[in-house]
User: What shape does this take?
Amino acid sequence: MNMKIGVAVALLFASAGAYAQSSVTLFGLLDEGLNFTSNAGGKKAYQLTSVDLVTSRWGLKGTEDLGGGLHAIFDLESGFNIESGKAAYDGRLFGYQSYVGLQSDTLGTLTFGRQFDSITDVIGLMTANGNWGGWLFSHPFDNDNTDATFHASNAVKFTSNDYAGVSGTALYGFSNQAGGFAQNRVFSAGLKYTYSTLSVGAVYENLSAPGSNSGGAIASGDAGFVAANQKTYGLAASYGIGAATFGAVYTRVNIERPTSSAYLGELGLSDAALKFDNFELNVKYDIAPDFFVGGMYTYTRAHLDQNGGRASLHWNQAGLMAEYLLSKRTALYTQFVYQKLSGGTTGTVFDTAYITGSADVSSNSHQMVARVGISHSF
Assistant: This one.
């Protein structure tokens, strides 16, 4: 009997020791606010929306120390809309992120599952929308995914540690199609250099038939554009001077034979090619530790080639934001975004203004969205 008790005590202490080297955290982010859209199909619109500043979500993340500087990690995050209680990301339980992997103190992190691409990880953080501004500050239709309209499923990702300020990341998302290895797969890679308050990043991404099926890397119902192919090239830089942080971003997006958009629906295009060039300047200024203001200007030029003809579109968009922290976890904020479109003579749904996240497409060449909101983290 005494031997049995001794064994039980030893096992109890061994279990406690193993538990002490592991951790699981429950966390969440909540965002809700009131939006006013100046022109949504020719009418004014007032709406409660819950994902404009951050994606409302709850999650579980954990780590286990495996010894020798190696750790097992996981992250499960479920997005939802506060005003309706509905799941986001086409009803996926863990649509925001769901991955498991290994993290090395000397090499980097290798993860498997549904994850952010290299664009979001590297240059998205230097845009206004991917850093402090949120969805309304996105480039038109989030054509370059700097606001993570789509996430990569079936993905393997490696992110290196920082070596003398240089770090890299690469992701490959499998099509998961028997006999269709190249049907709806994704490859992206990024490189970043950081020195003091300066950060510079570059990315490349290639989507093969995004949105063409439900089981691929960029699933239908999750794609920014359903198309034959989409390639993105991007450069970005940010620099801090005192209380101010400045950002500059350029992205080039080439889309072959787009058929529909997550924001516009069916495009009505036939064997077309669509090219976007996005130029963004942004600044964030910390007036006090609990209060900041930010501003953004984006110029986007698009070329639409269809049936041997070419048309050009030009978007000018500006945004302002102010946020005040009531505590470390709760903030009040207000936002204002204005967009002006010119060259809308393509005869397509692109011919009227549309701010990503607004109530609907405008009936003319301009649109304004104003928002007051509250965010909370736990």
The domain at 24-377 is CATH 2.40.160.10 (Porin). The mean pLDDT is 93. The CA atoms of residues 154 and 173 lie 5 Å apart. The chain has one domain: 24-377.
